[in-house]
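Cont'd.
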Amino acid sequence: MSEEKKLFKVTIDNITVEVEPGTTVLMAARKIGGEVAPPAMCFYSKLEGSGGKCRTCLVEVAAGSTADPRPMPKLVASCRTNVMDGMIVKNITSERVVDARKGVVEILLINHPLDCPICDQAGECHLQDLGYDHGAEGTRYEFKRRTFKKEDIGPYIQLHMTRCILCYRCTYVADQLTNKRVHGIVERGDHAAISTYISKAIENDFSGNMIDVCPVGALTDKTFRFKNRVWFLKPVNAHRDCTKCSGKVTLWNRGDEVFRVTARKDQWGEVEEFICNTCRFDKKETKDWVIEGPTLVNRHSVVSQGHYTGLEMPKETIQEVMNGRKPKLLMNIHDVSEVNKPEIDLSAIQGPAHSEDFK
Amino acid sequence: MGRKLLLEKAHVEGIRTYEVYRREGGYRSVEKALKSMTPEQVVEEVKKSGLRGRGGAGFPAGMKWSFIAKPEGVPRHLVCNADESEPGTFKDRYLMEFIPHLLIEGLIVSSFALGSNATYVYIRGEYAWIAGILEKAIDEAKHNGFLGKNILGSGFDCEIYIHRGAGAYICGEETALIESLEGKRGNPRIKPPFPAIKGAWGRPTVVNNVETLCAVVPIINDGGEEYARIGVGKSTGTKLLSACGNINKPGIYEIDMTISVEEFIYSDEYCGGIADGKRLKACIPGGSSVPILPANLLLKTAKGETRYMNYESLADGGFATGSMMGSGGFIVLDEDQCVVRHTMTLARFYHHESCGQCSPCREGTGWMEKILKNIEYGKGKPSDIDLLWDIQRKIEGNTICPLGDAAAWPVAAAIRHFRDEFEWHITNPVAAQQRNFGLAHYADPLEVAATA
């Protein structure tokens, strides 16, 4: 018995779940899934030390633990708070949380340019989702939005500082995936910016992952810039033998053309396995890849409108209702009636057909 | 005349040098602690003294010391927070500039109690010349055997290093200070883990204010119980106040926390009243971060009792009708001061000093400043006041470190107590550019004021 690992019971929004000690409240909530999982803009489970900054995942702790059932006075960042046994957490069931989250969303958006119509991230942007799910319809901010001097950070990555929400994820990627970080946060407060050390280009084999972890359109793929909207592309899983990474990717196709390559993302929008720049930027032909099949896309995502969901032939309704018998009579309506004027060629009509055309 | 513990010898000629300081009875506490006490006994004395952190939060220092983790083979650190950047507070500067050896003495005793062999003083970047003074004091102490290896034959080694900041208010927050000390960007860390478990370089660390560490000296010299006898209730010992604003005698005053606020402002021993016979309008009793109070609530609590200069009495009534002791930056505003302009100045400060790590503070402080600027310059709208209130509410308590709270409280308190002055600015934009709202009813007896 004693060798068994003791699991902590934690209740989030009245749903109890058992998790291992050391799990954060956010990860426990993700185990439950659905709306119970708080949104996270800066936390990234694959990046050590991330989280705590955006404050969208704030939750109320109604009881600290069985041993000490006092509630926590402040809302806590669920991504950086570890569960205790018997902890009771309120997320969407707490008015305080809903209110605070609405405030955070508004605050995140006051200096955001809202240039979604020309932003490559649109459609897969976490800030868009957050705004729709937790924000208000309008803003009360009536001042000029902040702007930055443009900076070129190399041939592969496009930096739009105005869109950045300073989640620090890209700095963690550089710290944890690459040998040397050459970019970081410069300046302070609301003029803090992502920048390279004296305008160097970011060049290393894994720098492209900064694009994948960026929750907004601040870091986008330069090779994909203005090429297509993500929801017109069909994501398919593919792989290749790569010496640097696992080679497991998602291709974003239109027809046979590969528009871009990204890492595969899980249901929380997090990368499953980081990929190298060769796979991401240089292998943009179908023949480079072994295609596995369509990527599963959450049906709430706008991307799902154009993606393959397992090929399925349309049902042959008549055969089904006839129960195997051949129909006795199948005829062309035009053979018996001229009422629809078959001599009029619809394609020859300018614009939409009108009653005048059938006179 | 209250008893002085820290500033008793501040005016002795040449007290800045080791010889004079030693002649005046300096370093007695080091001898006493290292020769006749164990580290645990020192911590116990500080606990008994009831000394509360003088940096602003007022957390009992002895308690903080007892939290420090003591894992085997891991060095521990004491860090002195000399990054005194709070507008209105300048007490640490005075201590370090005039009696640097008092701080060094306090540091040695505290390092001994905590087992810190490498102790750091993180000093505000702007205090460049004081860093030099402290360096000199450290050299002198080392020369005389109070620092270095095997101090006074006790087997205890200690070195003190001065580290100059680069001019950021946020580095006064203990975890940001530690980050900065490590050579990183001064972003506050997310707590837990607290520095007492995992601080500088991942080692157990205690961060204390300059005044707190100086106060350890009289505690060890006279004993914790003797120290606790001074003051009242949980506000033990003496407190340095840096008084500034519209008073006749701005400066540093050491009080024993038994005098009333009225006495502090008007008596000749302390601030000496308000210049040119003007009347008191408002006051920020503990540095820019604490709520501002109108004259009527400052001198008397909401219950009609006299307000005293101590932790409990200043906080009486919570944030609805009270304020905080804070770091002791006593800012007095007379009847010609404009609370809106004053609040705008503070909002600008917090906007400028926000580290930009977490979103509510990064974006919210700038937003508040812009709205306040509009109101001050006659472009405000009636809805702006409620908007300000809502923004400060969204910032407060939702940030990683207390800077968000510190930015929200002054705005909240100004709106809470001076709402009609804000409204006057909005409804009379032209007049607001030419004259001040004046004293209005802010000094009237209580029933009339106390607007929620």
